[in-house]
Amino acid sequence: MSDIQLDAAWENLLQDTFKSDNMSALKGFLRNEKDLGKVILPHSSLWFNALNSTPPDKVKVVILGQDPYPTPGHAHGLCFSVLPDVKPIPKSLINIYKELQDDLGIVNHNGNLQSWAEQGVLLLNSVLTVQSGQANSHQGQGWELFTDAVINELNRQSRPIAFVLWGAYAQKKGAIIDSKRHFVLRSPHPSPLSAYRGFFGSRPFSQINQFLQQQDQQEIDWHTKD
Fold it and tell me: In terms of DSSP H, where are the helices of 45-195?
C-alpha cells in the first residue's frame, strides 16, 4: 500500500486526524485484510481519488455516498462513479442521469464522473474501501470518522458550499453541516427502491448551478467525457 498518495492541502488540513488512534486502528485493519489475502477495492492508489481530484480550496459541491462498488473494475474512488468502460451503468447512477436529463436536458453515456470531480464536485463516500464481492464489509472500521473530519473541515469554510444529501444515510452523516452558511440539498436516495419517493423531480443540478451563479462561481458542466 506504498502507492497511497494524498493531496498536500488535504493532508495539511487533516494532519491531526491522521495522527489519531482511529486512523492507526484503520491502518491495522486494512493491513491485516491484505495479509489475509483479501482483495480490497478500489486499488489503494485510488482510495483518496475524491480528495486528490478536488483539493479543499476547489470544492464547490459535495455529494455524499456510502461505500465503493464491491465489483472488481467498477470503483475508482468517487461515489456513484464507475470507470468509463463499465456496462451496464449502476442503477442508482442511471436514475441520477435520468434526473439530470429531465432537469437540464443532458444525456450522459458512461458512468465516469471524474470530470465532475475536476470541476469542484467532491464525490465523497463515507467509507473509502470495501472487500471485493462483499458490500458494506469495511463499515465501522474507522473510515466514517475520517470522512466526518473531511466534512467538518468543509463545514468550517467561510465560503458557502453546496452539500447534496441523498437518502437517510447521507442526511444523518451531513447533520453537522451549517445550513445557514451552506446550501444543503436533501432528497430521497436515487436507488431504484427510493427514487420515486421524491428524488425524481428534485432538480438538484439546476439548483446547484443557480447557487453557484449567485456566488459568482462558474457553474458545473454536468456532461461526462465520452
Answer: 49-53, 91-104, 114-118, 143-155, 167-173
pLDDT tens readout for residues 152-196: 999 999 899 999 999 999 999 999 999 999 999 999 999 999 999
Domain with 135, as residue range(s), is 8-214
Identify the pLDDT of residue 226.
Answer: 74
The catalytic residue positions are: 67
CA-based angle 119:125:129, to the nearest 5? 120
Whole-angstrom distance, CA of residue 141 vs CA of residue 123: 20
**β-pair type (40-41, 130-131):** antiparallel
Of 87, 52, 99, which is closest to residue 204 (Cα–Cα)?
99
In angstroms, the CA 24 to CA 146 distance is 11
Number of domains in the chain: 1
Give the tens place of pLDDT for each residue, 123-140.
999 999 999 999 999 999
Residue 197 domain-assigned (yes or no): yes
